[in-house]
Structure formats: C-alpha cells, structure tokens
Design brief:
mainly alpha, 73% helix
C-alpha cells in the first residue's frame, strides 16, 4: 500500500468522526495488523458492491456512444423493471 494512502487510512480509522475516541477524548491507536484485517474483510463486499456500478458505467458509456440519450433512458427503464423482478423473485421484497 502506498505510504500516503496508509497514512490517510490510519487517520480515518483513528479519527473522532468514526467514534474511535477513548473516554477522556484521546484517540485510540490502531495497529497495522488491525487495519490490514479490516481491509482483508472489507475488500470482498466492496468488490461485490462496486462491480454492478462499474458495469453500469460501461453500459451507459457505450449506450451514449451508439444510441445517445434515448438508448441510456431505455436501458435505465429496462434495468429498473429487471431489478424489481429480481427483488420479488429472490426474496428482496416480502408481501
């Protein structure tokens, strides 16, 4: 990991914004092993969350280049309908 990225990550994980301060207000120090453990656990859900978004960006880009705004709008409507069908079919929505 790049040194400045590691420093930024340590700052974020140690910041009061994330609620990692002690009773007297001092910041709790997290070891590099702890941060590595967080990254190892979090990389898979991050990839699962980001992969549909990356494919959506690619589809929208090609739709804009081949069909323009009407193609992107048509794909968006189709994607919303498919999403609703998937949620109903696979149990994301309960009646």
């Amino acid at each position: 990991m790049h040194m400045s990225t590691r420093g930024n990550l340590v700052f974020l994980l140690n910041s009061r914004f994330l609620g990692l301060s002690g009773a007297s207000g001092e910041l709790l120090a997290l070891g590099e092993e702890y941060i590595a453990s967080i990254l190892k656990i979090g990389i898979a859900p991050f990839g699962l969350t980001m992969s549909p978004n990356i494919s959506l960006i690619i589809i929208n880009r090609f739709s804009m280049s081949y069909g323009g705004e009407p193609a992107v709008a048509t794909y968006a409507c189709i994607a919303y309908v498919i999403c609703i069908v998937y949620l109903i079919r696979f149990g994301g929505v309960r009646f």
